[in-house]
Amino acid sequence: MNNKKSNFPADDAPSYESVLQCMRCGFCLPTCPTFALTGRERSSPRGRVALARAVHEGRLDFTEALKDESFFCLDCRACATACPSGVKAGEVMEICRGQARSAFPGGHLSATLRRFVLERMLPDPARLEGSMLPARLYQRLGIQWLVRHSHLLKLGPDWLEKAEGMLPKLEMPLRPRLPELTPARGRKRGRVAFFLGCVMSLLYPEVSRQTVRVLAHQGFDVITPRATRCCGAPHLAEGDRQTARRLARHNLELFLAEEVDAIVTDCAGCGAILKEYDELLAETVPAGRRETFRARVRDISEFLAEAGLRTDGLGEVRASVTYHEPCHLCHAQGISKQPRELLRAIPGVELREMNESSWCCGSAATWGLKFTDASRQILKRKLDNVRATGADYLVTANPGCQLQLAWGVKQAGLPQQVRHLMELLGRATPE
Ligand code: SF4
Ligand code: SF4
């Protein structure tokens, strides 16, 4: 239902029902990292939804304050987990970002740059892969060593120093190297399609290589379509819903063309968006196709827990481990127990729970670079909880969290090694 008096500046506004549902109980307030930081009602889920409702009812123009709040929201979805009314303040804010782009388009240069990245770079895997060459040369030729030791980056903006510090050691992208079919090993149990996310392919290729190897070892033929494109998460985060829909449509048709039991990903951010294609494509793709796609999408931990992990032949990994829950796994997909089950199933692993394991790490795609101070404060709370476990490894299941946590651990001088769940399972899986 749309409200006739609405002051939203463009089509594609949040639905009126989505903001009407809030009964102002405040159960969401203690779960919201930006409310915890600021104590401001307008930076809380309840306050954000109230702003959107006032715009819907024509009581407020689409103000700069709502634009700021839509981008200051981490979209961590912790409020949705806590809300008894089913309000999804994070999603409402995500949709408001598209409105903000219409109401406040910004300067010509930044708008052109944003469009280039969102519309030309991210949808084109080969172009993205090519763009990483200078960064690999920067690391290989020793320029990174010089830059870090000269403290040159201290002269630039905060985000630049942080982004440089977060860069893992870069390998060749995985997408062109991964066979389109990796055959099952041992007794065959099925056939799956693997959704290789861009960040995984570019920054953590070894993690996804292990994911495919583990799946094959578990008895599944793995199809990895080379024509997979970005899932659209960065576009939704930046308010470009049109390009996100274009990418979603492409991926949906590509994966539906495969005869598979499941579509599996090892990136929590990608998984959350793939499961939301159903709503994103509601007006352009027939319901049956959307439902078939949605029913097949699984996070790797969800898939292996459902299929039952074959533990015969798994080697020992003697280590204590604590687990950070990515927001897009626990809050957006409701997956909490499955990664823990997998960790406990690895011989030799001792799982030590940290306090507030589902509290955001402060990464949230580019949020951690736009709001560096706020991000540092959120990360500190997380790292204090990590430190208290004394575990050898800090394990997670999303590349954005992994980048932020690895950077934070290094900055804080903590001894933990940060790993993706599949790196540990891969280590236990024989070659
Ligand atoms: S968003 Fe949900 S939890 Fe928060 S005040 Fe509204 S109804 Fe209550
Ligand atoms: S999605 Fe996260 S940051 Fe945004 S309102 Fe909800 S709890 Fe707060």
From TrEMBL:
Domain 4Fe-4S ferredoxin-type: 12-42, 63-93
Cofactor note: Binds 2 [4Fe-4S] clusters.
InterPro entries, per the entry: 4Fe4S_Fe-S-bd (IPR017896), 4Fe4S_Fe_S_CS (IPR017900), Cys_rich_dom (IPR004017), Glc_ox_4Fe-4S (IPR012257), Helical_ferredxn (IPR009051)
Top-rank EC class of the record's enzyme: oxidoreductase
Assigned keywords, A-Z: 4Fe-4S, Electron transport, Iron, Iron-sulfur, Metal-binding, Repeat, Transport
Cofactor: [4Fe-4S] cluster
Pfam families: CCG, Fer4_8
SUPFAM superfamilies: alpha-helical ferredoxin (SSF46548)
Name this polypeptide is given: Glycolate oxidase iron-sulfur subunit
Organism the protein comes from: Geothermobacter ehrlichii
Lineage, highest ranks first: Bacteria, Pseudomonadati, Thermodesulfobacteriota, Desulfuromonadia, Desulfuromonadales
